[in-house]
Amino acid sequence: MRIAIVDDESIFRRQIDETITSLYGKGEVSCFHYSDGKAIIDSFKTGFALDAVFLDIEMKGMDGMETARVIRTYSKDIPIIFMTSHTEMAMDGYEVSAFRFLGKPVDREKLRETLKDLENKIKVEEKIVLKVDGEEVIHPVSSLVYIEAANNSTRFVFTGETCEIRMKFAEAMKLVDEVSKDFFKCHRSYYIDLARVSKLGTSEVFMDNGDTLPVSRSVAAEVKQRLFEFIRRTGR
């Protein structure tokens, strides 16, 4: 996830960055620092892709509310999380569809809850488009349990539905990776959603749709570690 931190105090930007990284996990999130509203607006002008914006309300020059109004001209959907020591300003956030308000100094547990809700919002909106019988079918990635290599095809196993597509397994994994970072290759033929694991055995993994899949001995320890990191990050 790519997060912008906009605050005119460098110490505060660094503190938020360190806290987000410690809660989310290194490699799972990238934080980009902006010292004022103009800087992040310039970033939007270049088309730089972001998943969320943590925005201080009280800044010199262009304040947070004014910055948010301009951001909304570039993106109507990007989650904006306001940070302020004046929580009475929360009502003004409705004007720009604020995702959350966090009081300053930011409470670690409140930030954890915000990140979890933010991840869920982004995941809900993520989709996979598959071409089935000449038609494009859209599936939420949250409904994908795993994909399986099947000769020259790949089986996409969703909740209550399975689609087999003539597609190389490597291409299918790349397609999934474009919309989610929570999948892991537990076996040469299986790419699983860590969020859908109900139990981990010594040589198999139990998915929440009832399927039991093999785990290669060479990656057994890594599967356990990745699952632990996922649970720690998401609280699941």
Describe what you observe in this structure.
- This protein has helices spanning 10-24, 37-45, 64-74, 108-125, 169-177, 220-234; strands spanning 2-6, 30-34, 52-56, 80-84, 100-103, 127-132, 135-140, 144-150, 153-158, 161-165, 183-187, 190-193, 197-200, 204-207, 212-214.
- The protein is an alpha/beta fold and 236 residues long.
- The protein has 2 domains: 2-124, Response regulator (Rossmann fold), CATH 3.40.50.2300; 127-234, OB fold (Dihydrolipoamide Acetyltransferase, E2P), CATH 2.40.50.1020.
- The chain has a 5-stranded parallel sheet.
- α1 (10-24) packs across α4 (108-125) and α2 (37-45) runs parallel beside α3 (64-74).
Q: Could you name the key traits of this structure?
A:
Rossmann fold; 5-stranded parallel β-sheet; 236 residues; alpha/beta; 2 domains
Number of strands: 15
Mean pLDDT: 88
Q: Order of strands across the biggest sheet? A: 2-1-3-4-5
In whole angstroms, the N-to-C terminal distance is: 18 Å
CATH topology group of the largest domain = Rossmann fold
Let me know the CATH homologous superfamily of the largest domain. Answer: Response regulator
Which CATH architecture of the largest domain?
Answer: 3-Layer(aba) Sandwich
Strand content: 25-35%
Cα-based radius of gyration, to the nearest Å? 20 Å
User: Percent of residues in helical segments?
Assistant: 25-40%
Shape: elongated
Could you state the order of secondary-structure elements as H and E?
EHEHEHEEHEEEEEHEEEEEH
**Computed structural class:** alpha/beta
CATH class of the largest domain: Alpha Beta
Question: How many structural units, i.e. domains?
Answer: 2
